[in-house]
Design a protein that fits this description.
The complex is a heterodimer of chains A (65) and B (638).
Chain A (H helix, E strand, L loop, with lengths): L1 E3 L2 E3 L7 H8 L5 E6 L2 E4 L13 E6 L5
Parallel strand pairs in A: 1-5
Antiparallel strand pairs in A: 1-2, 3-4, 3-5
Chain B lengths: L7 E5 L4 E5 L3 H7 L2 H12 L13 E4 L14 E6 L6 E6 L3 H7 L4 E5 L6 E6 L2 E6 L8 H12 L5 E4 L2 H4 L7 E3 L3 E3 L4 H7 L2 E7 L9 H14 L8 H4 L4 H8 L15 H4 L1 H7 L9 H4 L1 E2 L9 E2 L19 H7 L8 H14 L3 H16 L5 H4 L9 H13 L2 H6 L3 H8 L8 E2 L2 E2 L10 H8 L17 H12 L14 H20 L15 H12 L5 H21 L11 H5 L14 H15 L10 H6 L7
Parallel strand pairs in B: 1-6, 7-12
Antiparallel strand pairs in B: 1-2, 3-4, 3-6, 4-5, 7-8, 9-10, 9-12, 10-11, 13-14, 15-16
Helix pairs in contact in B: 2-22, 2-24, 7-23, 13-15, 14-17, 22-24, 22-26
Classes of the chains: A mainly beta (65), B alpha+beta (638).
The complex binds iron/sulfur cluster.
Iron/sulfur cluster binds next to loops of chain B.
Chain lengths: 65, 638
């Protein structure tokens, strides 16, 4: 099980950030993710692996601020 | 009369008089509030060509017709006057509780002219206004002045909009603050207040704006709460706007080393997620989600930060809040500094002295680059070693700017004036109309090149939607909302073609409307925000009862922009100052994925003319044509 956006998602061996986003299904264009404090940017989503029990923070690429 | 209170307060500080005006419903419908309403008085009542510190400069302060209803993202206020930083129209927004409280006190706007003989503050309560002495408050930090005013009035709950010592001493980028941590930061409105000897505007009241359709207003408030956790702004309560640091870094658009690079290797040390774990109030006991987030009246997003540091070299008082993304970038990556407590300390100093964190941090970054290049020496800086990464020097300089002492006195004029005064470092400037660029890079998001140049009050990042929301890759998600603005042709992030110009102009109109209604751009917008154009329309209709459509609302935004251009033209500012710093054209970014990126000058020039064409402005001068002004009901300004 991994935790993202206050939701629990079932983990599987070889799960990438792109897999997790598909599972999450909100369709938002995130710019980056923090996987247990490890920083992954969008272009690496298809290959970056997620370990079991990971805590994930998704970073939107929004303007303003 | 729905949505507005029907009263505008006029204050003449020279003659120590106040008067109340009750404009017509038609007036409110045409201007709505914020800068559109403020500009009406500035254009009508202010003589052209005055110095920004002349008593004849008009300082106009107003929320909008949707302010004061407990819906997310509605409690904001805009301040306008001629800017001492740019010489053009000044414009700045902030949130908090002051904006709604002004309406509770019975007023829609405060229009101030003249100069008091000695320091004063305004006390506006339950439909009345008094001018009170403020000699005892002059020179005090914002936190101390706030306490003294509350004690003096015997009212812990009054809301205070004030300047700090920076505004009193006429730092050209001085801010106006409420709650000691919400800043109307940009364009030096604090210095204009200081020039009028006006320390504060204090408000309190029990009145409430009446909604024409209370059920819809209530429904919007409820929907905000339900939608937020699933929205794209979810997480703002935990990590604040500084969570954008890593997003910008990922895209190669995090301004670093005074816009020399779009990546900063230590970006993670500055990010909102790091802030949440390390310095937010309550983080030592795991209670930062509760104690480290703050909000504005009625808002579920709670993006405001509260930092508390009780140990180490940089203690920070939570009264002064915590740094936003822009502040983290300007004092952090712009200056090559990855020391988050030092950045939070710089934020505290700016909020104590009343300084704009963007211009202050960016001016220091400019000095650092000029120092690194050997053009500034310790003799110029009073012995300060201004190499990138020197957090102690950055903090020392921030204080010197606030006090207008030593080298800080030169920098308190802003980087462009400092460069001209010293005859050094002009090629390192990142200013548009003499205002320092915020933390969104035109080299990355190409429409920022256009908007920074044409914006009437200098480089600004909240005047249009950004390119990343119109990319083919992300468009699907935003297409529904953008279709309301007729925007159906997504473009690459680095395109600056006519379709991108149309996107920039159209979303600029919407943002301009938001700055007239004074709706927060993290909650309301046309792409990623909690609410889109449909909800904006429904909120205005429900609050006011007006049968408006979206085009009429967008025309308010367009009216505001045209009024600003008319003001600037009267001051001799038009296409001649719609320029970008040469650095953006001739110095490609270094390092990371944005290595080599720069703005293409011919493409920029073409976009500029295309923009003027689309706006209905003279293609050479960039001044609104008489036909355009008449179409917008501004024939009187000709
Ligand atoms: S989103 Fe943030 S700044 Fe905007 S109204 Fe809400 S708390 Fe205030």
């Amino acid at each position: 099980m991994i935790r993202v956006k206050d939701r629990h998602i079932t983990w599987h061996e070889g799960m990438t950030v792109a897999d997790m986003l598909r599972e999450l299904g909100d369709g938002f264009p995130y710019a980056a993710a923090l996987i247990n404090d490890r920083y992954v940017c969008r272009r690496d989503f298809p290959t970056a692996l997620i370990p079991d029990k990971a805590e994930i923070i998704l970073i939107p690429g929004v303007g303003g601020g | 009369m729905s949505g507005y209170m029907g009263k505008i307060l006029h204050v003449d500080l020279t003659n120590k008089t106040t008067s109340v005006e009750s404009p017509s419903d038609e007036f409110y419908r045409k201007h709505m509030g914020g800068s559109c309403l403020n500009l009406y008085y500035i254009l009508k009542e202010m003589q052209p060509g005055l110095d920004a510190f002349d008593p004849g400069n008009i300082l106009a302060i107003s929320p909008g017709v949707t302010t004061g209803f407990a819906v997310s993202g509605q409690s904001r206020v805009t301040i306008n006057a001629k800017s001492p930083l740019t010489g053009a129209i000044g414009d700045s927004q902030s949130g908090g509780f002051w904006p709604s409280e002004l309406k509770f006190a019975g007023f829609d706007a405060v229009i101030v002219k003249g100069r008091a003989q000695s320091p004063v503050y305004l006390w506006i309560h339950d439909g009345e206004a008094e001018i009170k002495k403020a000699d005892h408050l002059w020179g005090k930090f914002t936190g101390d002045a706030e306490q003294l005013i509350k004690e003096e009035l015997g009212d812990e709950k009054c809301k205070i909009l004030q300047i700090g010592p920076g505004g009193e001493k006429l730092v050209r980028f001085a801010a106006v603050l409420s709650m000691c941590n919400r800043a109307n930061g940009r364009t030096g409105m604090g210095a204009v207040m200081g020039s009028k000897n006006l320390k504060a505007v204090v408000v309190r009241g029990k009145q409430r704006p009446q909604a024409a359709d209370q059920a819809t207003v209530k429904e919007l408030a409820k929907t905000g709460g339900i939608t937020y956790p699933k929205s794209m702004v979810a997480g703002m309560d935990k990590y604040g706007t500084a969570s954008a640091v890593l997003g910008m870094q990922a895209a190669g658009g995090l301004p670093s080393y005074n816009f020399t690079s779009g990546v900063f290797d230590q970006a993670q040390n500055l990010d909102g997620t790091t802030m949440a774990k390390s310095i937010l109030k309550g983080s030592d006991s795991g209670k930062q989600d509760k104690l480290g987030a703050d909000t504005c009246f009625g808002c579920v997003v709670k993006c405001k930060r509260v930092v508390e540091i009780n140990h180490g070299p940089h203690p920070v008082d939570p009264v002064y809040g915590g740094p936003e993304y822009e502040t983290v970038a300007t004092f952090g990556s712009y200056c090559g500094i990855d020391d988050l407590p030092a950045v939070a300390k710089a934020n505290e100093l700016c909020n104590k002295y009343g300084l704009d964190t963007i211009s202050c941090g960016a001016t220091i970054a400019w000095a650092m680059e000029t120092f690194e290049a050997g053009e500034l020496t310790p003799e110029d800086t009073g012995g300060l070693d201004l190499r990138y990464g020197n957090a102690e020097a950055m903090l020392e300089l921030t204080q010197l700017i606030g006090k207008r002492q030593g080298f800080g006195k030169i920098l308190s004029e802003g980087s462009a004036r400092a460069a001209r005064h010293l005859g050094k470092g002009e090629r390192f400037l990142i200013t548009c109309k003499d205002q320092e660029s915020p933390a969104h890079m035109p080299q990355h998001k190409r429409s920022m090149a256009l908007i920074y140049a044409v914006n009437p009050f200098g480089a600004d990042h909240q005047s249009s939607e950004h390119d990343t929301e119109y990319e083919p890759e992300t468009f699907e998600h935003f297409s529904g909302r953008l279709a309301h603005l007729g925007l159906r042709e997504p473009q690459p992030v680095d395109a600056l073609n006519p379709a991108k110009v149309a996107y920039t102009r159209r979303t600029q109109q919407l943002m301009s409307l938001l700055d007239s209604l004074n709706l927060c751009q993290f909650v309301w917008g046309s792409t990623w925000q909690l609410f889109g154009p449909e909800e904006i329309l429904s909120f205005v209709r429900a609050a006011t009862g007006w049968e408006v459509d979206l085009e009429e609302l967008l025309e308010v935004g367009e009216r505001r922009l045209n009024m600003m251009r008319v003001f600037n033209a009267r001051e001799g500012i038009s296409a001649n100052q719609d320029r970008l710093p040469e650095k953006f054209f001739n110095t490609p970014l270094k390092g990371g994925i944005s290595d080599g990126w720069k703005v293409d000058k011919p493409e920029f020039e073409e976009a500029l003319h295309e923009y003027y064409r689309q706006c209905g402005w003279d293609e050479q001068s960039g001044v609104p044509t008489p036909e355009t002004l008449k179409r917008l009901g501004l024939g009187w300004s000709l």
